[in-house]
Design goal:
Elements lengths: L3 E4 L2 E4 L3 E4 L3 E2 L6 E7 L4 E6 L2 H21 L1
Antiparallel strand pairs: 1-2, 3-5, 4-5, 5-6
C-alpha cells in the first residue's frame, strides 16, 4: 500500500498524520477548508472553493489512512 498521499500540491507521508479536522468555512470568504496536523505539530490547511470538494478530499485522505493502518 502507498505510504504517501498527494493533495493540494502536497505529498504527505500517511504515517506522519496525527489528526484531520472537520470541514469548515475558511476565513475571509476563501471557500471551505480542513486541517491536517502532522506529528511535528505543524499543520497544513487544505482549502477548496466549495464544501463538496473539501469534503470529498477529506474523505479520500481518511480512506487512504485507514487502508494504510489496516495493511500495517
Amino acid at each position: 500500500m502507498k505510504k504517501t498521499y498527494d493533495i493540494a500540491g502536497f505529498t504527505i507521508v500517511l504515517d506522519k498524520i496525527t489528526m484531520i479536522s472537520s470541514v469548515f468555512e475558511a476565513k475571509d470568504g476563501e471557500g471551505w477548508q480542513f486541517n491536517i496536523r502532522l506529528v511535528s505539530g505543524d499543520f497544513l490547511p487544505i482549502k477548496r472553493p466549495d464544501r463538496a470538494k473539501a469534503t470529498l478530499d477529506r474523505e479520500l485522505l481518511a480512506k487512504a489512512i485507514n487502508e494504510r493502518v489496516e495493511d500495517g
